[in-house]
Amino acid sequence: MHPTLFHRLVLAGLLFFAPTFVRAETLYLKMRSQVEVAPGTQRYHTLTKRTEWDASRTAVIICDMWDDHYCRNSARRVAEMAPRMNEVVAKARAAGALIIHCPSGCMNFYADTPQRLLAQSAPKLGTSIPLEGWCHLDSTKEAEMPIKFDQPCDDSEPLRPRVRFYNRQIETLVIAPEDAVAEMYEPFYLMKSRGIENVLVMGVHTNFCVLGRPFGIRQLVTQGMNVALVRDLSDSMYNPAEPPFVNHFTGNDLVFSHIERHWCPTVTSGDILGDGTKYRFPDDRRKHLVIVIAEDEYQTEETLPAFALAELGRHFKISVVHGDAEVRETLPGVEVVKDADVLLLSVRRRNLPPEQLDLFRAHIAAGKPLVGIRTASHPFHQRDQAPGPGLDEWRDFDATVLGGHYTGHHGNEIQTYARIVEEKGDHPILARIDPAEFATFGSLYQNTPLPEGSEVLAMGRAEGIDQPEPVAWVRTGPGGGKVFYTSLGHRGDFDLPAFRALLRNAVHWAADVPVLVPAKP
Questions:
Q1: Angle at the Cα of 120 (from 116 to 122), degrees rounded to 5?
Q2: Does some domain include residue 399?
Q3: How confident is the model over 171-203, as pLDDT tens digits?
């Protein structure tokens, strides 16, 4: 006589309602989410909130960390992050969290194991919102996915056929006696039967299975659970040969942003380990470009992010900080400046709290590079007024950091032009830029004379005005870092190939990142 499921579970000591004697701990998590700057703008503040979760009311779901995949690069990335994931899972388990392994399609491999039987034992519960076998993109709650999924494998030729290559979960991930191995709705039933309210999700693939599986983010959020994606232990299916034609890991970041905006916050593995570190794939060698935008004149909140994704997304990790829509004197999420390898500034006359302005001072003092456009020559002070109570200013930023001498501008109605300085044509910032003069948009800024140490790369003129003006230059900042500034940056300038090349090359130069520019026709 074969033992019943009940008897097998009792013998294994894993019946779902069996008491646990693990002393639960508190998980301290830095929940990152994105909140729209103002309704309908499609621009977002990235905010982090410290949150405490009771580990005994928390589960970790490991999604589809298979032992192989039709995409070799995907399988390789799974293998690369699996040791870190195992370390994190062990820490969460020891803290009192329930670990649920979900290698979809592999349940036969685990048949009759205590961990598989545990998942099968959970009572099926009714829900007010029906459970879905697959949760597709919900256009009522979310935008279209930011990356394409048509030919998602980024392998070189020859490609494997898109068939099953996996048989089990990757062996690196330890399945402990008290864990569960589950599929379909079983994770949900098991969590509900144990009074679990919080779920940490990790695994692959972020834009497909992690979102869409019956135990994935869309389902769990819809069912009212508190969900967070462990973003540095997740990987998307994305091929940089497809739109938006960015680095694979930039594609990951775009998916994480999508989830933070529409579904749930994200955390990092370092939150669980308690050391604040983040896992980084060995092939992710991008430098971090942080763009700070807070000006009301030239719509760089629209032009700069689109430019950065198109021109810099193959080589840089990109973060964008926007000024607050209602309170001018704050930059929500500006703490990311601490993590910047290179800073791109488009700010106009903002007095900030000292702790925010100090982030920019620290960046410059550390010798980190800076790229400024247009109104960055007068970013942190008012024209004739001192800062209000509790606010700070940096009045000599233009002279001491940018090496400029902004005193005003000519009329907006006057046509302007720019040309590179011929004898500077070998400078890497000017690579492949046509030396011929080109028409520009917006007024000509007055910066003559520049302080000593500013090396002019491009000059500008306004029709009918005798005095030409420098419109692009480089210098060494007060902390020893590279600095580039251009007074160009009007909305119309972003349609000019010469300006786009100038700004793209400047970011690469500042960050010491070589750029492969197209050959001259």
A1: 125
A2: yes
A3: 999 999 999 999 999 999 999 999 999 999 999
Detail the DSSP E strand segments found in 103-239.
180-181, 198-204, 226-235
* Six-digit token string for 163: 């068939």
The answer to whether residue 33 is domain-embedded is no
Lowest mean pLDDT among 13-17, 353-357, 421-425: 13-17
d(CA 468, CA 450): 13
- Determine the residue type at 445: Y
Number of structural domains (the chain) is: 2
Pairing of strands 408-409, 445-446: antiparallel
In the Cβ-directed half-sphere of 312, how many Cα atoms lie within 13 Å?
30
Find all residues with CB under 8 Å of 196, minimum gap 6, and list them. Answer: 57, 58, 59, 98
Q: Sheet harboring 44-54: ordered strands across?
A: 44-54, 26-36, 266-267, 226-235, 198-204, 58-63, 98-102, 180-181
| CB 202, CB 234: distance < 8 Å | yes
Across the range 421-445, mean pLDDT stands at: 95
Record the pTM: 0.93
Same domain, residue pair 321 and 267: no
Chain segment 90-144, per-residue pLDDT in tens: 999 999 999 999 999 999 999 999 999 999 999 999 999 999 999 999 999 999 9
pLDDT for 384 equals 92
CB count within 10 Å of CB 496 equals 17
Asked whether residue 324 is assigned to any structural domain, the reply reads: yes
Could you tell me the two tokens for 184?
Answer: 């379909």
Domain boundary, last residue among 243, 273, 303: 273
Q: How many CA atoms lie within 13 A of 415 on its CB side?
A: 5
* Spatial distance between the Cα atoms of 212 and 500, rounded to a whole number of angstroms: 38
Cis peptide before 354 (omega within 30 of 0): no
Report the DSSP beta bridge partners of residue 446.
Answer: 408
The CATH number linked to 419 is 3.40.50.880
CATH code of the domain in which 212 resides: 3.40.50.850
Q: Distance between CA atoms of 68 and 65, rounded to whole angstroms?
A: 9
pLDDT exceeds 60 at position 252: yes
Q: Which domain holds residue 332?
A: 287-511
Answer for the pair 366, 360: CB distance below 8 angstroms, yes or no. no
